[in-house]
Structure formats: C-alpha cells, structure tokens
Design brief:
about 140 residues, Metal Binding Protein, Guanine Nucleotide Exchange Factor, Chain A
Length: about 140
Amino acid sequence: MNLDVQDLNGACHCKTVRFNVRLKNGLHTARRCTCSYCQLKGAVAVSAAKDGVTVLSGGEALTRYQFNTKAAEHFFCSKCGIYTFHKPRANPDFYGVNAACLEGVSPFDFEELPVNDGINHPMDTQGSTGPRLAGTLRYFPSK
C-alpha cells in the first residue's frame, strides 16, 4: 500500500455517493478515535483539507448527523448508511474521510493505528493543545 498517495476516489457501499479526496498527508494520517460516536462506527479516518473533498455524485443522498455541541458534522449515505466523511469539531479546516470508502484501501491495510483520546476531547480539557493518544490499535492477519 502506498501511504504517500494524495488523490483518491471514494464511494459509499451502494455507490450512490461518489467523491474525490486530496489527502493532507497521504494515508499517514490514518487513525481511530475513542469518542462516543467513533467507538460505535469503528472507522479508520484519514485527513483531507477543507477544500479537499469533492462530491462527484449523490450529494442529495448525503445525510448529516450532529450531536452534543453540534460543531462536528458526520456525513453518511441515506441509502446504505455508510459513513463517508466528517468535519471534526477540533479542526473544522479539515475533513476526516472513511479510509474504507477509498478505492484500493482497506482498514485492514494498516498494521498499526494511533487511537486519539476522543473521550477527553482537547476542546473540553483545559490546557490541552491537540489530540492525545489513547492507545494503538494493531492488526495481525492470520497466516
């Protein structure tokens, strides 16, 4: 897998929502999060600049979900339910993109992933300057 790839197409499961991403730092930004929402969705996210996500088709099928402070915006396909990308509360100048939606990328391609401490969100913790590491998730494929 080429971690330095910058430009990829992506789609939801049913292919209704199709999009293109220009990644901020390739797949090197891959991570998981422990916040209440990310725990349930279990996706691996990679970063794209605010203008780095272009919906190519199916924009009318995208549904936005917000909770708690309503600052973050999570987008998913209203037909198949797959999370495609989100605008995080901590950095609205970027998008988190579901790596599994990207052509040629699987969440199981990442042998080791940092897991951000979303339970203790940096915007809710005085003196914190950015995401803290909650741990590391490792994948060991069967031989």
